[in-house]
Write a structure and sequence with these properties.
There is one protein chain. The chain is α+β, with helices and mostly antiparallel strands. The protein has one domain: Gyrase A, domain 2 (2-Layer Sandwich). The protein is 43% helix and 34% strand. It has two helices and four strands; from the N terminus they run ββαββα. The chain has a four-stranded antiparallel β-sheet with strand order 1-2-4-3, covered by helices on one side. Helix 1 crosses helix 2. The chain starts with a strand and ends with a helix. 18% of the residues are buried.
Amino acid sequence: MDVQVKKSSSKEVLLDIRKSDISTLYIVQHELLKDPAVEFAGVILKHPLTKEFAMRVNTSKGNPIKEIEKATKAAIEYSDELKKAINSKIKGV
């Protein structure tokens, strides 16, 4: 995954993302929107053939980059829990 900060301020960040999957970005977006400090979190597919995405995050307080880091960590933890649950069910079959 390649990420570039296109625009950054104290309450908004706009990222250009390449070589990723939109489902992964939707999980991070979902985690971001759980936080009351996040006013907006959105992901769009800029071009379907090149897999270019844009993510914008606006916060009412706090650093939007830190909010993305926190949401990404929560998404990874959730994925690890899901993986463990699936593996335990597969081993039981």
